Amino acid sequence: MSVTANATVPATTPATVTDHRPRRRRLGVAAGAALLALAVSGCSGLGRTAVGPVIYSTERDAVILVNSPSVKGCHRLAPAGVHEVENRTLVDVVMYRTRNCTGRDTTYVPTTFTDTKAPPSRPWRSYSIVH
Predict the structure, then answer these.
(1) Which of 44, 81, 99, 101 yields a CA-CA distance of 20 to 30 A from 56?
(2) Which DSSP state fits 88?
């Protein structure tokens, strides 16, 4: 029995074997894009929370951090009121002098801004998220 050293090996794989790597890569990219779109829609008000903290200082100089507040409804602040607010969320905030987010005396605090009440004015007592 002799062994031939010049045996030929086909240069290509048989047609019955397929490579699924390109299809899996496309599916992975599509899934990643879908998750990104879902995350972005959550930040735009379709989700449940504002991403990031609202930080405020009370009239008694206590600093309170509320992380990712709900985008829906009115948020009450400390009973004594608030004299400074820092909006580090990805959405804007409206500050109110009343406990139920009503009235004309409001202050608009855009995202990543800080505002301090004027000395003679009443403290803020509630806020709502603009979405």
Answers:
(1) 44
(2) -
Report d(CA 88, CA 92) in Å as an integer. Answer: 9
Q: Please state the pTM of the whole predicted model.
A: 0.62
Phi, psi angle pair for 36, to nearest 5°:
-65, -45
| Residue type at position 56 | Y
Which amino acid belongs to residue 65? L
Tell me the two tokens of residue 75: 């948020």
| Sheet strands (E) in 12-91 | 53-58, 63-67, 74-76, 82-87
**Coil vs helix vs strand at 75:** strand
In 3-97, which ranges are E strands? 53-58, 63-67, 74-76, 82-87, 92-96
The count of other CB atoms within 10 Å of the CB of residue 76 is 14
Tokens of 7: 């045996």
Mean pLDDT of the chain: 79
